[in-house]
Specification:
By secondary structure, the protein is an alpha/beta fold. The strands form 2 sheets. It has a 10-stranded mixed β-sheet, with helices on both faces. The chain has 8 helices and 13 strands.
């Protein structure tokens, strides 16, 4: 019976990703914007794989392009709260970036209740999400020859918050992160108390909407799973990472009609970047299914931007 339920769940995940991919593709006029193509689903390039973690069976969707590097980079693309791996694959469309660069993308499923981030949530604090990610990296290094110096993490909302935690606790495995609409949340809404002592610099690109009502750029409180959490202001999160990575005092700044980008050069070739989307909400920029045409969020392809950021980082020094 358990095996039957698992099979049904996998079928539903594939159907969900295919339907969302169709919607996004149609919304984009048939273009290859966000969302996995139907062909990617039926051709078998996306596989649902299972990892045993104690008494739990954890799952991840793995996308392997037809043509990839001999030792490809790996991107972990983490879902937001209330979503799943199939929806994350569809919304971010990172499959197309994997095709372009010859990389592998993994879309892990969180346990019930979402990711166990710094300040959330009591009902999932027994779940070892950091251990799950480490095991997933181990597997893909063994099965696919993933380059241990080019493991990157991105994610939206709670997935972005989990990216920050992985940078803190898996710095020996993670070269760079790119949280979208995320933060570092703690009981008092400050990035300072979050336990974070990476063994080496981890490059950061934070993407955030200036008008995000769910994870406000100025910080604040929100309710998640009937529990209140507090988000640190973005400027404080960036300041914490500038301190961690030993960054220069003054940033280089680029201003466009849709966004403001600030870049700090840091120790050992790392960087900290903050991209604020003017007028952007709690969405994934570039995904038309969640950004109405003509809005600030629709004018930026976050996945391509993030992929190019990761590619510019190269192999991390001291990767195990």
């Amino acid at each position: 019976m358990n095996q039957f339920i698992m099979i049904c769940k996998r079928v539903l995940q594939t159907v969900a990703a295919t339907v969302v991919g169709l919607v996004v593709t149609l919304a984009a006029g048939g273009g290859a914007l966000a969302g996995p193509t139907v062909w990617a689903q039926v051709s078998g390039r996306t596989h649902v794989e299972t990892l045993r973690q104690g008494s739990l069976e954890r799952q991840a969707r793995i996308y392997r392009p037809a043509v990839r590097e001999r030792h490809p980079a790996l991107v972990l693309d983490l879902q937001g709260a209330g979503g799943n791996a199939a929806f994350q694959e569809a919304i971010t469309g990172f499959d197309s970036q994997a095709d372009r660069l010859g990389w592998i993308v993994a879309y892990p499923d969180s346990a019930n209740g979402g990711w166990h981030t710094f300040g959330c949530c009591k009902n999932i604090r027994q779940i070892d999400d950091v251990g799950f990610m480490a095991s997933l990296i181990d597997r893909l290094e063994a099965t696919d020859g993933v380059d241990p110096g080019r493991v990157y993490v991105t994610g939206g909302s709670r997935g972005g918050m989990m990216a920050y935690r992985l940078a803190c606790e898996l710095s020996s495995r993670v070269a760079a992160i790119a949280p979208v609409a995320g933060s570092m949340e703690t009981a008092i809404g400050s990035a300072g108390p979050a336990p974070c002592e990476p063994s080496r610099p981890v490059s950061v690109l934070d993407v955030h909407g200036s008008a995000d009502p769910e994870v406000p750029i100025e910080g604040g409180r929100s309710r998640v799973n009937v529990e209140e959490v507090s988000y640190a202001p973005l400027h404080q999160v960036i300041a914490r990472w500038r301190d961690i990575d030993g960054c220069a005092t003054s940033p280089a700044t680029t201003v466009s009609g849709t966004s403001n980008l600030r870049v700090w050069s840091c120790r050992d070739g790392s960087v900290v970047e903050s991209l604020v989307v003017n007028g952007g909400g709690h969405t994934y920029p570039g995904a038309l299914i969640v950004n109405a045409p003509g809005t600030s969020g629709a004018g930026l392809n976050a996945s391509r931007l993030i992929a190019d950021f990761f590619a510019s980082r190269g192999p991390a020094a001291g990767a195990r």
